[in-house]
Design goal:
The protein is globular and about 45 Å long. The protein starts with a strand and ends with a strand. β1 (4-8), α1 (13-29) and β2 form a beta-alpha-beta unit. It has a single domain (4-145), classed as HUPs (Rossmann fold, 3-Layer(aba) Sandwich), CATH 3.40.50.620. It contains 6 helices and 5 strands, in the order βαβααβαβααβ. It has helices at 13-29, 44-52, 57-81, 96-107, 121-127, 130-137; strands spanning 4-8, 32-37, 87-91, 111-115, 141-145. Strands 3-2-1-4-5 form a 5-stranded parallel sheet, with helices on both faces. By secondary structure, it is of the alpha/beta class.
Length: 146
């Protein structure tokens, strides 16, 4: 029995398709949705650049949080436009795959529904896709939508 569906969102077309699938699934299984956006932290080389030019990292993190809140709000609007109201959302900053699996554990999610590709397509070709990593480490069933 599915009670909670976790849906990672990033504003991509694949994430929108995952939302559509998740809303249908949740409606048919009397479940709730939790939308999660995870902006990735800057890499070590990016942090070195930030440090060299005395850029305030806390302001960068605040900016990522604000952008993430906007992405979650847009996704929630999409869900509510489908007349589905059992939805909440959050933003977690860090490694996307790790944050998604941690959130699934914390929420005791029964299902994770995510897009096959997000906004960072090129980077995922180099280091592996987030969806692949989540499927390997998730505490529950995963559905990858494309």
């Amino acid at each position: 029995m599915t009670k909670l569906v976790l849906v990672p969102v990033d504003g991509s077309a694949h994430a929108r398709q995952a939302i559509e699938f998740a809303v249908d699934w949740a409606r048919n299984h009397d479940a709730k949705l939790h939308l999660l956006h995870v902006p990735d932290l800057p890499s070590a080389s990016e942090l070195a650049f930030v440090d060299r030019y005395s850029i305030d990292v806390s302001k960068t993190t605040q900016r990522l949080e604000m952008i993430g809140q906007d992405i979650v709000a847009e996704a929630m609007d999409m869900v509510r436009a489908k007349d589905f109201t059992a939805v909440e959302g959050s933003v977690s900053i860090g490694n996307p795959a790790q944050q998604i699996t941690d959130k699934a554990k914390d929420l005791k999610a029964d299902l994770i529904v995510m897009g096959s590709r997000g906004m960072g397509d090129f980077k995922s070709l180099l280091v592996g896709s987030v969806s692949h990593k989540v499927m390997q480490h998730a505490p529950c069933t995963c559905v990858v939508v494309r």
